[in-house]
Amino acid sequence: MSDTLKNIKLQHHIDLFKKEVWNMYDPKSLKAEEFIDNEEILESLKYADENKSNVEVIDAILEKAKERKGLSHRDASVLLACDIPEKNEEIYALAEQIKKDFYGNRIVLFAPLYLSNYCINGCTYCPYHGKNKTIPRVKLTQEQIKAEVIALQDMGHKRLAIEAGEDPVNNPIEYILESIKTIYSIKHKNGAIRRVNVNIAATTVENYRKLHEAGIGTYILFQETYHKESYEVLHPTGPKHDYAYHTEAMDRAMEGGIDDVGLGVLFGLDKYRYEFAGLLMHAEHLEAVHGVGPHTISVPRLCPADDIDVNDFSNAIDDDIFAKIVACIRIAVPYTGMIVSTRESQKSRERVLHLGISQISGGSRTSVGGYTHEERVDETAQFDVSDTRTLDQVMKWLIDMDYVPSFCTACYREGRTGDRFMALCKAKQIQNCCLPNALMTLKEYLVDYASPETREVGEKLIEKNIPDVTNEKARAVLRDRLVAIENGERDFRF
Ligand code: SAM
Fold first, then answer.
1. How many CA atoms lie within 13 A of 442 on its CB side?
2. Is the distance from the beta carbon of residue 265 to the nearest atom of ligand 1 less than 6 Å?
3. What confidence tier does 9 reach under pLDDT thresholds 50, 70, 90?
C-alpha cells in the first residue's frame, strides 16, 4: 500500500475517533448546527485543498466512486477542487456514465406554478421580499388556478411544482391545500396533473402531514445557503430568518410522512465549495436519520429580478464551475434525481444534461398567473427566465439530442417513494419500468399536444428505444399500450 493510501486510511480513522470520542460531528444529530457542522465543512475544504493536485488520492476516490455507492462530502469536495485537467476529464466521464446507468436517456419534465407572491420575509435576493413596493402582489383564486392548470395541461404538462411566498395571512396552509385539491381535480380534454410537488416555506410537522395527506409528490425547500452567518444576513427579517427552523424542515417533513424531499442551494449567495459540502452533509444526514436520502437536488443559480441586482452578490459561479458541481453531485449521490430549471439558458442546460440532470422545467412562467396573462410575465416574475422556449420546442430539442422526454409520474402513484424508489434503482429495473413509462407518456404527448415536427421525430425516437426494454414481456405490453394510446386510451403505467 502506498504512503498516500495509508494516509487516507489514517485520516479516516482520525475522523472516526473525533466523531466517536469528541462527538465533534454527528450526521445523526437533529440539530442543524450539528449535522451541518461548520468546523466539519471547513476541515473538508482544507482536506480538499491539500489534495486537489494529489493524483493518488484522487485516483483512490475515483475508484471508490466507480462502485456507484456514492461518496462522502469530504471525498466529493476533493473531486470538486481537483485541478488536474486529465482527472477532471475522468470526473466528467464517470458522471456521464453514472447518469446513463441510473437514468438512461430519460429526462423528466415539469413546470412551476406560482400561486401567490405575497411574502413577509426579507430575503435580500428575492423580489418577493416584503419591502419590495414595486412588484404587484397577486394571489390566484381557485378559478384562476383552474385557468392556469388548463393552460398547463394544454401545453402537455403532467407534473407541477407549486410555489408561493410565505405569508400566514394571505397564503395559509389551507389555501395551499385547497389549491392542490383544485389542481388534481381538473381533467381538461385528455389532460391531467398527476403529480404536484410543493415548494413552500418551512412549516410544522402537522402542516407537512396535511400536505402528505393531500397527495403531494416531493416537498422541495432550497436551503439558499448552508453558511449560518450569511444565511442570517441574507434573511434579515421574517420567519425565514431562523436558520435552524429552516434547515431542520426536511426532518419535520419526513416526520409528517413525506418521504420524497428535494434539497437545493441558491448558488451565488455564498462560496460554492462550502455550499456543496453542506448540501452533501444534509443528504448524508437524511440518509443517516431516516434511512433515505433526498429524492432530488436542485442547482439554481441566482438570476436578475425586479429590485434585485445580481452585482450585489459577489459569489456568482461561472458555467465551468456549474458543470463541475453537477458532475460531482452526480457522482456523490447516484440515486438522487437532479433538477435544472429555466433559470439556465438553453446552452447551459445542454451542457449539464448529460452530466447528471434528470429533470428540467419547460415552457415555464415564474410569474403569478403567467400562463394565462402574458403581461404578468414581466410584472410579477420571481426571476428572469433564461430559457424562454415553449414546451414543444424544449421537447423537440431533447428528442433531437436523443433524450427521451418523460412525463412519467408512475413511481409516486404506485407508492414507490422514498426507499422503495431507491430499491427500484438499485435493482436496475429502470430499463424495464421507467423507460416504458417514459415512452408511453411521450406517446401521449405526441398524440395530444405535439407540433407535426415534434411528432415526427418523437415517433422515430419511440421506435428506436423500444428494443432497449430488455424484458420481452414488458416490451410486448409496451407495444400494445402504445397502440392503445394512439386509439385514445390514457394513463397506463408499469
Ligand atoms: N417561499 C418559499 C421558500 O421560502 O422557500 C418558496 C421559495 S421561492 C418561490 C423558490 C426559490 O426561488 C427560492 O427558494 C429561491 O432559492 C429562489 N429564488 C429567489 N430569488 C431568486 C433569484 N433572484 N434568482 C434565482 N432564484 C431565486
1. 31
2. no
3. low
Mutate to test the pocket of ligand 1, among 173, 199, 226, 303 (most ligand atoms within 8 A of CB): 199
3-state percent helix, strand, coil for the chain, nearest multiple of 5:
50, 10, 40
Asked if 7 contacts 228 with a C-beta cutoff of 8 angstroms, the reply is: no
- Higher pLDDT pick, 14 / 386: 386
Atom of ligand 1 nearest to the CA of 304: 23
392 vs 403: CA distance, rounded Å: 14
Distance from the CA of 390 to the center of ligand 1, in angstroms? 22
Q: CA–CA separation, 328 vs 322, rounded Å?
A: 10
| HSE (side-chain half, CA atoms, 13 Å) at 376 | 22
Q: Please name the residue whose Cα sits nearest to atom 1 of ligand 1.
A: 165
Q: Give the integer Cα–Cα distance in Å for 223 and 360.
A: 19
377 versus 466: the higher-pLDDT residue is 466
Owner of C-alpha cell 399536444: 449
Question: Who has greater pLDDT, 11 or 255?
Answer: 255
Between helix 85-103 and helix 55-66 the angle, nearest 10°, is 10
- The model's confidence at residue 124, banded by pLDDT at 50, 70 and 90, is very high
Given a contact cutoff of 8 angstroms between Cβ atoms, the answer to whether 165 and 116 are in contact is: yes
pLDDT band at 145 (very low <50, low <70, confident <90, very high): very high
Closest Cα to atom 13 of ligand 1? 222
Q: How far is the CA of 234 from the centre of ligand 1 (A)?
A: 12
E strand or H helix at 111, and its extent?
strand 106-116
d(CA 28, CA 31): 9
| All three cell numbers of 199 | 415548494
pLDDT digits (tens, 9 = 90+) for 85-108: 999 999 999 999 999 988 899 999
Amino acid found at 345: S
Q: Is 224 in the pocket of ligand 1 (CB under 6 A)?
A: yes
C-alpha cell at 80: 470538486
Distance 302 CA to ligand 1 centre (A): 9
> What does 277-333 look like in DSSP terms, one character per residue?
HHHHHHHHHHHHHHS---SEEE--B---BTTB-GGG------HHHHHHHHHHHHHH-
